[in-house]
Design goal:
Layout (H helix, E strand, L loop, with lengths): L5 E5 L1 H6 E11 L3 H8 L3 E2 L4 E5 L2 E5 L2 E2 L16 E4 L2 H11 L4 E10 L5 E10 L2 H26 L2
Antiparallel strand pairs: 1-8, 2-7, 2-9, 3-6, 4-5, 5-7, 8-9
Length: 156
């Protein structure tokens, strides 16, 4: 029986604030109670970002709420967490991040089919205000077109 991916948290704001150029999958270095807390869907990607420092990738601002049955094992909720990426991917990301305007933004946290906690990272470039307005207008047009199509098919 094949397992499915279980999404823990999504960063919906990232798609509004950034153009996503490329995506990467990275593992997370976590403690036991952090994994248990993630299984209870206790994570927030709201102010989260990733950095590459001295050939290592780090995730900053990831808030994992304390495990409900944890005691002294619950550690700092907002500590930087190491990301597990291949050396070649880190070199590639480091080169891309040195370009002006690029950032490494987590898009979602999930458990993969092997029950390992993973982060989907997006190599992103910030949107300007007029780009945000254009994307909102495009979403509105697509929603209106889908609504009209549903109404047209409903009458048949």
């Amino acid at each position: 029986m094949a397992r499915e991916e279980k999404t823990i948290s999504k960063n919906k704001k990232a798609f509004h604030e950034f153009f996503i150029e490329d995506r990467y999958e990275a593992g997370l270095v976590l403690t036991g109670v952090e994994v248990k807390s993630l299984r209870e869907n206790g994570a927030s990607l709201r102010e989260c970002f990733a950095l590459v420092r001295s050939n290592e990738a780090w995730l900053h601002g990831l808030h994992i709420s304390p495990y409900s049955h944890g005691n002294r094992e619950n550690i700092d909720l907002d500590r930087p967490r190491k990301l597990l990426l291949h050396r070649q991917e880190i070199r590639e990301l480091s080169g891309e991040l040195k370009q002006k305007g690029f950032a490494l933004i987590p898009l979602r946290i999930y458990f993969n089919t092997d029950n390992r906690a993973k982060v989907e990272l997006g190599l992103a470039k910030g949107k300007k205000l007029h780009d945000k307005r254009a994307s909102i207008a495009e979403k509105d047009m697509n929603r209106d077109a889908a609504r009209d199509l549903r109404e047209r098919n409903k009458g048949q």
